[in-house]
Specification:
The protein is an alpha+beta fold. It has four helices and seven strands, in the order βαβαβββαββα. InterPro entries: SmpB (IPR023620), SsrA-bd_prot (IPR000037), SsrA-bd_prot_CS (IPR020081).
Length: 159
């Protein structure tokens, strides 16, 4: 009998920054943990987070996620969290040094790509070391995407 695997309910993407790959050239990615309060985790499980305009910065030997939006959990009343607070990212010391060095010396940016729950049910953030694209690079990316889409249509038509 053919068993269909069900998608793991814990391992799901909560928020994705789709503009990041268009605006930035992603050079490397790192999985980081997030320091969250209980109401923030419950809010994430509802899937209404937004990381479109957020970024990460290295300050005082720590890495912080800035300007991410996690809406308040409605059932939490007075114990709720602030939606746009700075959240600490959990990274090893070696990775932290690598990130801080790339930001300071090479002029890179730390861009969050997505927030998801891993197979153990922990909230994780996929953080990218990226370089900003120029306007002509963005146009080239658009041309490549349009061409691959057109190529797929042609192959589907003839095949």
């Amino acid at each position: 009998m053919n068993q269909v695997k069900k998608a793991d309910p814990n391992n799901k993407t909560v928020a994705e920054n789709r503009k990041a790959r268009f605006s930035y050239e992603v050079l490397d990615t790192i999985e980081t943990g997030l320091v969250l309060t209980g109401t923030e985790v419950k809010s994430l499980r509802q899937g209404q987070a937004n990381i479109q305009d957020s970024y990460a910065s290295a300050e005082d030997g720590e890495i912080w996620l800035i300007n991410s939006y996690l809406p308040e959990y409605l059932q939490a009343n007075r114990f709720n969290h602030e939606p746009r607070r700075r959240r600490k990212l959990l990274v090893s010391k070696r990775e932290m040094a690598k990130l801080a060095q790339s930001v300071e010396r090479e002029g890179m940016t730390l861009v969050p790509l997505k927030i998801y729950f891993n197979d153990r049910g922990r909230a994780k953030l996929l953080l990218a070391i990226a370089r900003g694209k120029k306007l002509h690079d963005k146009r080239e990316t658009e041309k490549q995407r349009d061409w691959s889409r057109e190529k797929g249509r042609l192959l589907k038509e003839r095949g």
